[in-house]
Design a protein that fits this description.
Blueprint lengths: L1 H17 L21 H5 L13 H4 L11 E9 L3 E13 L5 E19 L20 E17 L4 E14 L2 E16 L2 E10 L2 E4 L6 E3 L3 E9 L4 E10 L4 E12 L2 E8 L2 E10 L2 E10 L2 E11 L1
């Protein structure tokens, strides 16, 4: 069994060495913020969380992981990113225990809000040229926001002692200047425990097409994201994980990460998100856990802080 686990891990990480050679950016696609991830714990591990997902943020990464929760849990995250981007996430996961003490799965409600402020409104004249002000500069008539939200209900349940499944029902909405768009969508996830190794599968953003309230009836399809992950609990302190991530019409990306518990209340993390370095740390205080992550991203350094509480 140990030889099999070792072979799987070596094979997955070897694929990652080649992945950066054909990786591509996902910027510019509809719902691009949906690929950014939630929770500083997962982000500090390079987003290699599909086969880890054992806290309330599993609702985003792999809803099957919600079935592993033993207590109710709430999570919060806030990030001020470069280019005036604002990103927030919060959720609550409720463990469904029957009167007989039997676990009937976990239900969660989550909300993501992403916005860009201070977008200048410019206009064109009859000839298709930008309207200029008295100084010959492009005239700015006003400033507006691009606001996108994702609200979703999740359910995860154990199918057997080692096999878990989960589902998200989502409502996406976007407001840009004077127009709005929305859509419904689905995510689903699977997890399988194999001794100290877990394999996970997540398929996100199924059937999502943003319908705009414009005269032309414009539609923007949100690409489906499929992720296959593997994690291994090396010992009581060290966890390693790797993901192969495929966004529709794009090349495969490789994420990997590790977390090491240096103290009962302190954990350190490191990862690679498609060759971008990530770092993280967490501190536990009673029923609270506070997480921090750093990522060296194309648009600049990204710092995220999140917190979670069990009930």
């Amino acid at each position: 069994m140990k030889k099999v686990v070792k072979t799987l891990l070596i094979g997955t990480f070897s694929l990652g060495l080649a992945a950066p050679l054909f990786a591509a950016e996902s910027a510019g696609q509809a719902g691009a913020y949906l690929k950014m991830g939630v929770g500083a714990r997962a982000l500090g591990m390079g987003s290699a969380f599909t086969a880890v997902a054992n806290d309330s943020t599993a609702a985003f990464w792999n809803p099957a992981g919600l079935a592993k929760l033993k207590k109710h849990e709430a999570s919060f995250m806030h990030a001020n990113l470069t280019d005036d981007r604002d990103y927030n996430f919060f959720n609550y996961a409720h463990v469904l225990n029957g009167k007989d003490g039997k676990n009937n799965g976990t239900l969660a409600l989550s909300h993501i809000n992403f916005g860009i402020d201070g977008i200048p409104e410019t206009r064109e004249d009859g000839a298709g040229n930008p309207v200029l002000d008295a100084n010959g500069n492009v005239r700015i008539f006003s400033y507006f926001e691009d606001t996108e939200t994702n609200t979703f209900i999740s359910y995860g349940r154990a199918v057997s002692d080692k096999f878990y499944a989960g589902l998200n029902l989502k409502y996406l909405k976007q407001k840009l200047f004077t127009n709005k768009a929305d859509t419904m969508g689905l995510d689903f996830g699977l997890m399988y425990d194999w001794n100290d190794t877990t394999v996970g599968l997540s398929v996100r953003d199924i059937g999502e097409s943003m319908d705009w309230d414009t005269a032309a009836g414009t539609k923007d399809d949100v690409p489906v994201t499929t992720t296959l992950g593997i994690s291994h609990q090396c010992n009581d302190k060290l966890l390693i994980a790797a993901d192969l991530n495929k966004v529709e019409d794009m090349d495969v990306k490789f994420f990997c990460g590790a977390e090491y518990q240096i103290h009962d209340n302190v954990t350190l993390r490191v990862g690679s998100h498609d060759s971008d370095l990530t770092l993280g740390a967490s501190f536990k205080l009673d029923s609270w856990r506070f997480d921090y992550s750093y990522a060296d991203e194309t648009l600049g350094d990204a710092h995220r802080i999140s917190a979670s509480k069990t009930f």
